[in-house]
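pls ignore typos typing on phone
zinc ion + seq
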Amino acid sequence: MKAVAVFPSQRKVRVIDHPEPKLTSTTQAKMRILDVGVCGTDREIVSFQYGTPPEGSDYLIIGHESLSEVVEAGSQVSTVKPGDLVVMTVRRPCPHPNCVACRQGRQDFCYTGDFTERGIKQNHGYMTEFVVEEERYLNPVPHELRDIAVLVEPLTIAEKSLEELWMVQRRLPWDCPDGSGKSPARCRKAVVLGAGPVGILGALAMKVEGFEVSIYSRSPNHEEKNPILDAVDIPYIAAETHSTEEMAKIAGPIDVVYEATGASGVAFDVLKHLGPNAVFVFTGVPGRKAPIPVDTDQIMRSMVLNNQLVLGSVNAPPQAFQSAIRHLGVFKQRWPAAISSVITGRFPIEQALDALQNQPGSIKNVIAVASTAA
Ligand code: BGC
Ligand code: ZN
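k done
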């Protein structure tokens, strides 16, 4: 079967022929891959800055954002059957008995670093025709979401962040001041940094939760994004023309920041302008560039005097996949055109290398591995 593989030692990326996998246990299912999304992590992997092949292999099959259809289920598999649509999680646990996170299925919090990640770290990914996986890593998706469910994984980053936000804000009175008892989100302001797919999807999730959301971003081609953001009524503040201070005046007082760019200079600049008791969630993974000067006194002073919290968040557990699936359903009902226009390109697997290029104006490129099972 065809697969898109990166050969780091040869500095090559190509479509290869890889053996089709078979069930090796009764708790596994076999999936036909339908769609695979391309993200910044994949672009880093195919430019040899990130990613590791499985032990003993000189290549890594890439792809970790997927939608697939179950074609075969082992006799002990009970939650899915052939014909069902599923989205697979990405991270697999480390083997160490003392890693309490991995032992409890929370490898997104692995202590040892010896986890693997499908399509990223020592584990082949989904940019291929068939995959075999354990049932516990499968998340069923309703057929109504066939066209957009490939967006589940990038949305899980926000879902895990939101879950953590609710949890950490329980440390203080965070209710709405009007005594209405409505969700605290309904009287809080959130800023999303970055208008890529992770930023846009996160902004929609926060909007659905009730936050007043703005996006602050530096995107040369943000015209493509304006119709989406207009439809969902999220103001776009251009970083080219507004300093972080000006942005905070327009969008603030900022209660929550969801960072989805990996642009650390801007992020730390925004830290200076948070409101009281604010939470700042970092999700971007910056490349290693030259050091950037930061006003640490001002940041530390403001963080202490305002009881602020900075949180880093990576990967996502199954419950974040379930929340993402639920939220995508809401997006589709409320803003059907906007949510489908997040997917800006569909490519056959033979053209995966084109899809991996970051063309101007593209938001989310998808490899449509199989276009059946609509
Ligand atoms: C993926 C995560 C992964 C992270 C770090 C992201 O692109 O969505 O699942 O943990 O990269 O490898
Ligand atoms: Zn672990």
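The longest helix spans residues 152-168. The mean pLDDT is 95. more later
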